[in-house]
Amino acid sequence: MAEDLDEKARRVRELLSSFYKSDESDSGDFDLDAPGDGGVSARRRDTLLQINTKGFEPERYMASLVRKTNLPTLLKKHVEMAAEIKNLDSDMQMLVYENYNKFISATDTIKVMKDNVAGMESNMEQLLEKVTAVRTKSDNINASLFERRGRIEELNGTRSLLRKVQFVFDLPKRLRKCLKEGDYAQAVKFYVGASPVLETYGSSSFRTCKQESEEVIATISKRLQAKFLADSEPLPGRAEAVALLQQLKFPVDVLMDGFLTSNMKHLLELQTLSHKSKSPDDSKKFISEFTQTATAFRSIFPTGESRLNEAAKDLLDKYFANVNVSLQPEAGSLSAAELISLLKSLSADVAKMHEVMPEAGFIDGAIQAVESAVKQHVNHKFKVLYAQVTGALSDIHSPKQEQAKDQQKPLLLSLENVQNLIVNGGLEVLKDLTQLLDDSVDFLVSWRDAYIDLVQSGFQEFFGSLVDHFISLSLASATQGEGSDQRLGSPAPGFVLLLSRLSTFIEQEGVPRITEAVGDSFIGGSLGDRPAFLPSEICRAFRAAAEKFLRQFIDVRSRKLSIMICKSITTPNWLQYKEPRDVRMFADLLLDEVKGMEGEVKQVLEPGKSHRRSDSAGSSSSTRSSNTTRGDSRSSRLNNRGKTHLLERDVAKLFKQRVEIFTRPELTQASVISMVVKIALKSFQEYVRLETFSRCGFQQIQLDTQYLRDPLREVVDDDNVVDFLLDEVCAAAAERCTDPTPLEQAVLEKIVHTKREKRLDDEATKVFI
Amino acid sequence: MIIFVLQARCIAAVVADTQRTRFLVGTLSLREENEIHLLQIGDKTGALAFDGLYTHPSEIWGLSACPFDVSILSTVYASAGEFGAAIWKLPERARGAANTPLQKLASLDGHTQRIKCTLWFPKGKHHQIVSIDAENLYVWDLDPSGKPAKELGRVSSGLQQMAGGCWSPHDVYIVATACGTSLKCWDLRTMKEASTVDQAHAGQVRDLDYNPKRQHTIVTSGDDSKVRVWDLRMSGMPLSELPGHAHWTLRVQYNRRYEELILSAGTDAMVNLWYVPPPAEGKSKSSPKISDPLVRSHHEHEDSIYGIAWSARDPWVFASLSYDGNVSLSFVQSFLRNILLSLRFTSTTSLKQFAKS
Question: Are the Cβ atoms of B81 and A575 closer than 8 angstroms?
Answer without folding.
Answer: yes
